[in-house]
From TrEMBL:
Keywords of the record: Membrane, Transmembrane, Transmembrane helix
Protein's UniProt name: Transmembrane protein 14 homolog
Species annotation: Drosophila lebanonensis
Family statement: Belongs to the TMEM14 family.
Gene that this sequence comes from: LOC115632214
InterPro entries reported for this sequence: TMEM14 (IPR005349), TMEM14_sf (IPR044890)
Amino acid sequence: MHNDWLGYLYAATVTAGGIMGYAKAGSIPSLSAGLAFGALLGYGAYLNSQDPPRPLLQLGTSLFLAGMMGARWNRSGKLIPAGMVCVISVAAVVRNLITYNRYLPLPSK
């Protein structure tokens, strides 16, 4: 069994971003979203650490974060934090698609 250290690091980064948003601007929505998405990503990393890996939760959460933060990055034009989370989320989507392709069979007819 291997540990999904990159997945845990991604979850910690999203959680820390929510905490920093609260500490810097007093944003309750940022704190709650950071904690919620961080928890989902952490559990997804746990599922990815199983044998065989189960990347679907982390894949879906990363895809949602990439879209949401990508739209926010497009509106604001600011790389930090929206652009950074978008880029990291896209990398996580690619990584989880590779894991899905390697370990899980495609649905048959």
